[in-house]
Amino acid sequence: MTHPPSPLSRRGILAGAASLAGTGVAMSAGAPQARADSQNRPRNAVIFRDVRPLGAPNPVDLTVVDGRITRDRAPMGAKVIEGGGRIALPALVDAHIHPDKSTWGGSWVSRKAANTIADFAAQDAELFRSQIRPVGERAYGLMAHAVTRGTRAMRAHADIAPAYGLTCVEGVGQARERLKHALDVQIVAFPQHGVVRAPGTAALLKEAARNGIVDVIGGIDPISFDRAMDKQLDLVFDLADRYGVGVDIHLHDRGETGLMVLRGIIDRTRALSLQGRVTVSHVFCLPGLSDTELAETAEDLGNLDIALTTVAPSESLVLPIAKLREHGVRVGLGSDGVRDSWSPFGNADMLHRAHLLGWITDVRLDKELAACYEAVAHGGADVLRLPRADLSPGSPADFVLMRAECLPQVVVDMPARDMVVHGGRVVARDGELI
Ligand SMILES: [Zn+2]
């Protein structure tokens, strides 16, 4: 499967990543380093001494030059950081989170009963008005916390609706700027109140896409919530086509309604040649399909390189990740809402999400536990079109150091993240952002 250049690289966060996404092949560090050497620029080198990559029994020294793992000898004067025999595992990716809605770090909020998306969305707006801290502060608090738990990148959905204007999108943008040394962030303009049912939203989506303040345009249940499937999908896909942004649509509908929307997304991706630029989140209509139906749908998704995300909500609603991957479908995991009006739960800890994936799918074997971790770390990187941080030579030096024996045990025990490294730089230590 080949991948077209990512439209998302205009922010710079994905530069050079497009040809690697989904392949698991590490980028060669040769060319950029050689160029740096020929100009006699000092290379930024760090040795992480006495660490065990992926749980290897014997500790080694892990050398990082200019943000990437290398097999070469470290240049003279390299900084040395002691790893103390800790396990080194790939940093994690949150492929679906809503930092703008969160009350993380603030006072406890007592939630009221809600049954429909409209109820929840109304409570979002109420909570938004009641919070003293602006979106940028709340989002920063949650995103910084995610970094301390080992998250290297996230796709952040931010509400866009007449009730907020561009405030949520801009707030998450401010948090992204403050954390740019530690976290790669894609922002989705998410029409939580509907594209068609909330007049004024379409104009805001257009403004966000045109101004380049978002990387992706979102959508939500075009049939059951917006009650205007063609209108919503046409509008969202037209913006993606016109402004070179991605698409990421929340699809909660099950059964035939969900499949009808999915077919609408597949058709438009094909018609506009948006292969590799479209994601569908949740996709509760897929897990209930027969093997034959699932294989047919997965074939279409794989051929058009449409990515999916899941939050591993339950055994019956989690996406069949292994089967989808057989057809080349990129699948990532996410936190979704964290301590917001929708739910008191959530913690933006993607190791916990890997644990939940293993728990709800009742895994038992070491290779199954390891696959849960890899789905979060590498599946998420694939969805965001980042090179995988698999600790191989040339890969980004994004890893987490923990006191643990092996990867399967880490998924079960969720040990403290003693050190989080992003681009070869220690960005968090003992749960605190540096
Ligand atoms: Zn969501």
Brief characterization of the structure:
By secondary structure, the protein is an alpha/beta fold. 34% of the residues lie in helices and 21% in strands.
How would you explain this protein's 3D organization?
This protein has 434 residues and is an alpha/beta fold. It has helices at residues 30-38, 117-130, 135-148, 167-178, 201-211, 229-243, 255-271, 291-303, 321-326, 350-360, 366-384, 407-413; strands at residues 45-53, 60-65, 68-70, 79-90, 92-97, 151-159, 184-190, 216-220, 246-251, 278-282, 307-310, 331-333, 399-402, 419-422, 425-429, 432-433. It has 2 domains: 43-90 and 390-433, Urease, subunit C, domain 1, CATH 2.30.40; 92-384, TIM Barrel. The strands form 2 sheets. Strands 3-2-1-4-13-14-15-16 form an 8-stranded mixed sheet, covered by helices on one side. The chain has an 8-stranded parallel sheet with strand order 5-6-7-8-9-10-11-12. α11 (366-384) crosses α12. Mean pLDDT is 91; it is low at 1-38. Bound molecules: zinc ion (ZN).
